[in-house]
Amino acid sequence: MNVDMExxxxxxxxxxxxxxxMSVMVALSGLVLxxxxxxxxxxxxxxxxxxxxxxxxxxxxxxxxxxxxxxRARQSSNVLQLASQTLEAxxxxxxxxxxxxxxxxxLLPSTAAIAVAITDDRFILGYAGYEESxxxxxxxxxxxxxxxxxxxxxxxxxxxxxxxxxxKGTHGINAAIIVPLTVGKDVKGTLKFYYRRANHISExxxxxxxxxxxxxxxxxxxxxxxxxxxxxxxxELKMLQSQINPHFLFNTINTIASFTRTDPARxxxxxxxxxxxxxxxxxxxxxxIEFRRxxxxxxxxxxxxxxxxxxxxxxxxxNVEPEVEDMMVPPFLIQPLVENAVRHAMPSEGKLxxxxxxxxxxxxxxxxxxxxGNGMTQEACNNILHPGSTTGCGxxxxxxxxxxxxxxxxxxxxxxxxxxxxxxxxxxxLVEGALRQY
Length: 438
What we know:
Blueprint: H1 2-15, H2 18-38, H3 44-66, H4 68-90, H5 97-107, E1 115-119, E2 124-129, H6 144-152, E3 156-158, H7 161-164, E4 175-183, E5 186-195, H8 203-242, H9 246-262, H10 264-283, E6 289-290, H11 291-309, E7 314-320, H12 322-325, E8 328-329, H13 335-344, E9 352-361, E10 364-371, H14 378-385, H15 392-408, E11 413-419, E12 423-430
Parallel strand pairs: 7-9
Antiparallel strand pairs: 1-2, 1-5, 3-4, 4-5, 6-8, 9-10, 10-12, 11-12
């Protein structure tokens, strides 16, 4: 209550309009007129000036109040402000009991209703107004009209207590408007306006109820979409974690087993790092991690490939600026690209060198994975970036591309440059990536 009063006081200066100024002038000049009429010493000049000010002020006030454009402008301003406050009340959490109660309290003073309620498909989420203490959040829905709206998704305008579901003459609520709250084709709840008399339901009241029902439905749909997107990202990451190349797993185990006889110390080191590798793989399920952690995991992966193929066949060089190491990135960003290079770019003879570079360009960050291996044709490059690519290489690159675009937004992109027999460069351009810090 105190917070609301403070909010209202804070908003008063914005509402001081010309109509209010004219009202003050009318009141002051009227007081001067009355004072002069009842005072023994009448000042003709003061009486004349007060009369002129009173007449002009009340004329301007009536003109302002009767002007259709002025009336519509005030109504539009009030509705837009109320809509903004409603959306703010929902916030990032969507429609829950806390936000529903806040919205009911916001809507009640702006209508002719004596009570406003919001429900989900089973319970009351928020209630403000008449008999509020008997309709607490979490109470089960009681009126059959509400259940009917939940069932068929139709807006109901009800003019008798019996239509609502109240016994006649036993309730102060005698009319109602019930609007469905929908997400797609599913009815998720209702917005209800209760009235003391049926004649209080005007076309304006119907428009307010319908408009705010649509507003809440739209916001609920947006919240549901954000939730589904976040869930899809997490599921995608879980899928990545569960689809670690089984050949890599078996090859690494065989490599460690071979070292148990020839180099037991190295076998122990590899086994310890292998445990760290998989523990980190399973634990890196957060939305973002430091880029240095992603780099460490990539280097740990490369250690096993180096043990398998030998230092005369593989080399990894990392040249990343310290600022880039502090950047926050989605996990599994660089490792799939380095793994791609080992699997697809290694020549039949000679050495494959892979370089990971990270530089800051203003607020943007550019990360490159460069190899001097087999390379590929321009057609193969185009296929990798094509959304329909189903090859192992295309899936990995496409997955990285989709996730960086999802995290870093507009302008972020992935580039692939390659020349047959000369090598391949995969470049990630992360817009405002330098701002992704702890």
